TrEMBL record:
Annotated protein name in UniProt: Phage tail protein
NCBIfam families: conserved hypothetical phage tail region protein (TIGR02241)
Taxonomic lineage from the root: Bacteria, Bacillati, Actinomycetota, Actinomycetes, Micromonosporales
Top-level taxon of origin: Bacteria
Molecular function terms from GO: structural molecule activity
Signal peptide annotation: none
InterPro entries, A to Z: CHP02241 (IPR011747), Phage_T4_Gp19 (IPR010667)
Natural source organism: Actinoplanes aureus
């Protein structure tokens, strides 16, 4: 049995349409040309289930753990190259609307061949926080902006769905 090599975490895309995680390989290859930014780092892929302890009377060997609700981490995108004002426009759109400008999206991990290998879709995302680059004339560093996305849930696309042709 041949085991596949582990996926490297340095090749990925972030898009603002969850359907992008299911594109055929030929179309997925076009995503870097259309992406709103080239991100250096994505953190926050995760969530947690809040659990309440309930001690049942007369049942002394354990305490019941009852599920209450899920909460999702904010996705934090750090980028070094902007390819247009799309992300800034999304953030500003949420400032003037009490409901915000919600967007679905996906984080797509690419394999060594550049094709999608795994993907996580998020739904009802809001551009919750934007941080501009730190500027310093004494440093020769990349100007990095940050965008935090608050969302209402993650789902992982299976490898067979991602690689569907």
């Amino acid at each position: 049995m041949v085991r596949p090599d582990p996926l490297a975490k340095h090749r990925f895309l972030v898009t603002l349409d969850p359907g992008d995680a299911y594109l055929p390989p030929a179309q997925a290859a076009l995503l870097p040309l259309l992406a709103a930014g080239a991100f250096q780092e994505v953190t926050g892929l995760g969530g947690q289930l809040e659990v309440v302890s309930y001690a049942e009377g007369g049942h002394n060997e354990s305490v019941h753990q009852l599920p209450l609700r899920y909460s999702w981490n904010r996705l934090t995108l750090k980028r070094g190259v902007a390819r247009g004002p799309g992300l800034w426009s999304w953030y500003v759109a949420g400032l003037g609307d009490s409901l915000g400008a919600r967007r679905d999206g996906a984080v797509v991990l690419l394999g060594a061949d550049g094709q999608p290998a795994a993907a996580w879709s998020f739904r009802a995302g809001l551009a919750a926080k934007w941080t501009g680059p730190d500027l310093n004339a004494e440093q020769n560093a990349v100007a990095v902006e940050q965008l935090e996305i608050a969302h209402e849930g993650l789902s992982q696309a299976g490898l067979d769905a991602v690689l569907r042709t």
